[in-house]
Structures are given as structure tokens and as C-alpha cells.
Amino acid sequence: MRPLVSSPLARYLVRRLGVSALLIVGVTLVTFVLTNLVPGDPVAANLGQRAAENPETVAAYRAHYGLDRPLPVQYVTYLGNLVQGDLGESQQTHRPVLTDLQSAVPATLEIAIGAIVLSVLIGVGFGVVAAVRRGQLADSALRVVSLVGISVPTFWLALVAFYVFSFQLDLAPGSGRLAPATTPPPHVTGLYTLDSLLAGEWETFGDALAHLMLPTLVLTLYTVGLLTRFTRSAVLEVLEQDYVRSARAKGLPGRTVLFRYVLRAAMVPILTVVGLAFGALLSGTVLVEEIFAWPGLGSYAYQAASHLDLPAVMGVGLLVGVIYLVINLVVDLLYGAIDPRVRVQ
Amino acid sequence: MWIVVAVLGPALWPYDPLIQDFPRLDAPSAAHWFGTDELGRDVFTRVLAGARVTMPLAVLLVGLSVAIGGVLGLAAGFFGRWVGETVMRLTDLVMAFPTVILAMVVAASLGASLLNAVLAALVVSWPAYARVTRGLVVGIREADYVLADRLLGFSPLRSLRTDIVPMVTGPVLILASLDIGTATLLLSGLSFLGLGAKPPTAEWGSMVAAAIQNFDSWWLGVFPGLAILTVVMAFNFLGDALRDALDPRTAGELGKAETR
Fold this sequence. Notes:
Helix content of chain A: over 70%
Low-confidence stretches of chain B: 250-260
Mean pLDDT of chain B: 69
Strand content of chain A: under 5%
Oligomer: heterodimer
Helix content of chain B: over 70%
Order of helices and strands of chain A: HHHHHHHHHHHHHHHH
Number of helices of chain B: 10
Mean pLDDT of chain A: 74
Radius of gyration of chain A: 24 Å
């Protein structure tokens, strides 16, 4: 019988969550300080020039968003509202930030999930092949592929892909999440592909999937490059271990050694990078979303940042920060599932 | 090769990168290898000129990140206690925040200019170095030779300088050389969003952005993009080679993933 695993685990979880909560508060503080320290003025960025010259309009604007109060008061008010689930109102869209995020996040998730799943399948596969065939032709070829992957500017790749496949070859649809004539499926999860499936609207599903294809593939290339490189070095390191040699010496078939012994041990560091890569995908979609006119988190963040829309920026930062921390937590918990040595601690 | 292009600069340019004398939006030809842009400027010249804009800034950015992150990491690792705690929590904070978005906020609030883009990128890129440096310092702080010198009466500063810094420099430089490519991508990305170089400057990222306006003329965007791709590839390749030569264990890979 296994001893009480749950109690140290529970303690661990509580501690981790505590630290995470502190970090989240820290994230709000960083954004707040940064956006207020720098010389940009949100009033000028959001009001038109004529409105900005009228002192009354400016004063009313400042009062509406609470910008007329001292900074510490502004910050404490923000935190107070945050606890009640109120992220404030965007100075750009004049909607609650929470509402804006609810429509933006599924759009980005749809790309990011597709990209990370593809990347793990391809990248880890490539990495294993490269490690096993170290120094051979396949290794060199994959090395070039992954080098290109991590070196290509995604915004440029997106543009080229768009030009070739949509504009010239007409193989992929234009920008956005759906063709202009298609109505979005009834809202359940906000993921158009899933929602249209749930509603049984096959044509909408096809359209949504077609629109997803290019942005997802463009993002996949970078992550594939990263994962291939990393998996290769992680697997190589394990391949040199004594226990792998022993397993081989025992006469175990190569496949068994590779999958049961090598890959399992290599999976721990690989998972870390997968977690990091997924987090990076969520915030790194900015440039790609700009090109495909994808109404996701990246576009929203870009709009918010360029207009110094403080509540919106904080909202995005907070959200991505939370997602990062959750991913890290999940990754750390998965370590325990994969590697018994971690469980003991 | 790009370094040569950047160093030689104007000597190689067939035309002036800002001059608008040519037919507009001409496809690539013998006279204009990469065609001309919407204002009648020679794209080939502008791509060459761009080498003098992005690359030095990327190097500057990484240099500053190494300096700031390195010093803080040294302090954190060597003095430990509250200095270390403060610095490490600070890096936690910056790293918990999405890199690109933080850089965008800083760049947007400082105003669009290349130097501000570097500053913005600096804000997000120093923590990786602080972490790596601290990790290395903590590892060797208690090494016998360091302790022996301390017992011989070395002051903390002298010990830091003669015993610790030389041991840390190699791995950090490897990380840095791998990072120049990433820095180039980040900077040109910010410029692409209009948060970096201002219009007349021949910067690769903003040239790609300008190409969106003239979608039919593929040569506007393709060549500056290829320039970025090849430069970043070259730096990554260089970094790989350096790492393989100096450090068989892959110290750099994790830090690299974290900075993206």
C-alpha cells in the first residue's frame, strides 16, 4: 500500500498556489508601475486631438477612469475590484475588459492548442530521430530544418504564407476566423471549430478549420524547431546513461529501450520546454494575428498597448500570467507522474 | 557575410537607400536586383542598409542585457540572503509577464523609436542572464579554491573578480551569442508593429510591414524577411558552434526558451 501521498502533495499545492498568488499581484504591480512611470499619456492616446485640447473633456475623461486620483489609490482600487472579478473598463472599446477577453481568448487558444499539439508530435518525433541517427544524414537534415524554424521571423513567414497560399494559389481562405458570409456557430466554448461541431454545422466547421490552418502552421514551425533541438539534446544525454547501456546489454529490443527507458527519462526536461513554449505561443501570437486579422489575445494586446489602454493591458498581462503559472504547476505535477524521484521530495 | 555588409556599408550600396528617383513598384530587374518600393527606392540597397540598423542594435541589446543581468546575478549569487531574494523575485515578476506584450507596452509608452525598442526589449531580456549567472555563482561559491582564497584573506570583491567572474564568463557568453538571433527577431518584430524604426529608416521589420500595403509586389517583403532569416540563422549557427566547442553540456538551451 502506498503511504499517504496526498498530504505532502496537498501541502505542496497550497504553497505553490500561495507563491503564485503573490506573483500575480506582482504582475499587476509591474504593469501598473511601468505604464505610469513612462512618459506616455493615455488621455492623449485615446482622445482625439481636438478633444484632448479641451480641458473639460480631459478632466471628465480622467475622472471617469479614476485617473485623477493619486497612483497608490488607483492601484488599490484596481486590486479591490480585481478580487471581485472586475477587471475594469477598456478605454478603447468601452466594454468591460473581462468581456473583451472572453471573446479574444478562445480565438487565440484555437490557434495555440493546434500549434502546440502539432509541434509536440512533430518536434519530439524529429528530435528522437535526430538523436538516434546522430551524425547521420537524417540528423544533419533535421538540424537545418530546426535551425530555420527557430530563425525565421514569424511575421514574415505569415505574410509569405498568406501571399502564396491565399493570394496566389487560392488554397487557403483569406484573413479572419470565418468567411464573411458565414455566421459564427452558437456560443458554447468560443472555439469556432468545437462549437460548430456541437451544433452539427459541418460547413461552418470546415470554414473555421480552413481559416485556422495557415496561422497554426506558421506558429508551429518555430515551436517545432525549438522542440526538435531540445528533444535531441535531452535524448542524447539519456542515451549515454549507464542504465540504458545495461538495458541494451540485457538484450531488450531497441524500441523498448527507446520508448520505455530513454524517452521516459528525457520527457521531464522536454515537458518544461513544452510548457514554456505553450506560454510563449499564447503571447507570441501578436505578430501572426496582426497579419491574419485574427481577433485574438495578441491583436487585443497590441491595440491596448499602442493606445496605453491600462485596464486592458493589465487584464491581458494578468491572464497570460495566470496561464503561465498554471502551466508551470501542471508541468511540475506531471514530473511527479513521470519521474518517481521527484515524488519522494 | 552580413557583418561585412554592415561594416563596409555605403561602399557596397548601388544607390542611396532614401533616394526616391526610380519608377515605383518595379519588379526585380538587372538594374534593381530586388525591385523598387512604393516610393521608388531601391530595395536591394535598403536591405543592405538595414544590416547597419538592426544588427548593431541587437548586439547592443544583448550586451546591455548581459551587463545588467550579469551584475545582478553575480550580486544575487555571491551575497545571497536578501540581495539574492530581491533580485530573484524581481526576475520572477518580469518572467511571469508575457515577453512580447511587456515589450510592446514599454515601447508604446516610450514612443516609437529604435532606441526605445531596444530599451523595451532590455526590460524583458535581462532576467534570463541574472538567473543563469546566479545559478553558476551559487554552484561555485562554495568550491574549495574559492573558500581557500577567502581564507587567505581575499576581500569579497577580490574573490569575486579573480575566482568567480572568470568561471562564469564562458557559459554566459555562449548564452549571449545564442541570444543575438532572438534579439534580432524581437527588435524587428517590434519595428514590424510600428513600435521601432520610424518610416524613412531602412529597417527590415518595418520594410516587411510596409510591404503589406502593396501586396501585389512580393519583392518588397520577401527580401528584407530573407535578410532577417539569414542573419538570425547565422547567429544561431555561431552560437551552436561556440557552445559545442566550449560547453558540451547544453547550458544555453533552457535560458533561450525562457526569453521567448
